[in-house]
Amino acid sequence: MNTAILIFVLGAVFGLIIQYASLNKFNVISGQALLTNNTVLKTIAVAIGLGAILLSLEISLGVASYHIKPFILGGIILGGIIFGAGMAILGYCPGTLAISIGEGSLDALVGIMGGLTGGLAFTLLLPSIHNLLGPDLGKLSLFSITGGLSFIYYFLLLLLGAGFILMAFWINKKDKKADNKWLIAGIALAILNGIVFLKSVTNRPIGASTSYPYLVDFLTGATKNSYFQKIETPGNWELIFLFGAFIAVLVNSIIKKQFKFKLIYSNWEERFGNSKLKRIIWAFIGGFILIFGARMAGGCTSGHIISGGMQLSVSSLVFAFFVFASLIITGKLFYRKQDM
C-alpha cells in the first residue's frame, strides 16, 4: 500500500475510535477538567496499561522498537502546565480538533487557527527560549533504567501495566456509569498504536501537534531554520494522519445525519453565556496556548501521553502528570468565573 494512503487509513481508524467514545467532544474534555466526566482519563489509562504490555511484546519479538522522547526538564514541565491550561480552556486536544471539525464544531476550527498561530510563534521564538527548555536528561524509560529486557523489567512492566488498567476500572466504579465505550476505545487505541509502532507498518508513534507548526511554517515560508528541518518529516506524517481522521469522521457524521455546525456547547454556555465573540476569543487563545505548550514539551495527548506512556517513558509520564494537574486546576479556576 502507498505510504500516504496507509497513514491516511490509520488516521481514519484513529478518528473513528475517538468519535465512538466521544473523546473529542468539548463537554467531555472540559468535563474532565471539572472532574465531572472521567472518560478521557479512563480511556488513556487503559490505552497506556494495555499498550505498554503489547508494545513490549512486539519489541521482545523484534517487530517494533522504542521511540522515546527525551526528558527535557524545562520543556516537559512548563510545556505540560501550558498545554493542560490550553486543553481546559479550549476543550480539545491537537488531534481531537480535526475530528470535531468533521462533526461541525466551529470552536474547534477557531482552535486550529489559534493552534497554527501558536505553532508559528513557537518556531520564531524557539531560538530565544531554547535555554528555558533544558536541561536534557536523556531518553529515560523503564527499559533503559532497568537495563533492557530482564526479569525486573518484565515484572515492573506487568505491575505498571496492570496498575494503569486497574486505576481506570477503579475510577469507573466511582463514576457508577454503565457505559463501557471508554474501555473499548482504550483497548482499540492500544492496538492501533501497537500496529503503528510495527517496523513493517510505520515504525513510529502516533502524534498530532507537530502538524501545526509544520503546516503553518510551510504556508508562511518560515522554513529556513533548524526547527522546521527537524519537524518536516513527522509533521507531514501527522498532517496526513489527521486529515484521514477528519475525513472519516466527516463521512460518518454525514451518513448518520449527525453533522451540525455548532459553536457553543452546554458546559461553556452554563458558565459564560451564549456570546459567540467570547467563545471565539477564548477558543483562539486556548488553541494558541495548547500548541505552544505541546511544542515546548515535544508532544501532546496522543504523541506524548498515550504513545509515550505505552513506552513507559519518564518524560511522557511526567508530562502527563503536569498536564492533568494543570487541566484540573485551570478547569476549577476558569470555569467557575461567570464574567470573562
Describe, in short, the structure shown:
The protein has 340 residues and is mostly helical. The chain has helices at 3-20, 26-33, 39-60, 73-90, 94-101, 106-133, 142-145, 151-175, 181-197, 211-220, 226-255, 266-272, 276-297, 301-310, 314-334.
What global shape is seen? globular
Total number of strands: 0
- Count of helix runs: 15
The first-to-last residue Cα distance is: 51 Å
User: Which structural class fits the helix and strand makeup?
Assistant: mainly alpha
Beta strand % = under 5%
Main sheet record: none
Helices and strands, in order, run as HHHHHHHHHHHHHHH
Instruction: Detail the poorly predicted runs.
Output: none
How many independent structural domains? 1
Whole-number mean pLDDT: 96
Report the helical percentage: over 70%
- Gyration radius, rounded: 19 Å
Q: In words, what does this structure look like?
A:
This protein has one domain. The protein is mostly helical and 340 residues long. It has 15 helices and no strands. The mean pLDDT is 96.
Structural topology:
Elements: H1 3-20, H2 26-33, H3 39-60, H4 73-90, H5 94-101, H6 106-133, H7 142-145, H8 151-175, H9 181-197, H10 211-220, H11 226-255, H12 266-272, H13 276-297, H14 301-310, H15 314-334
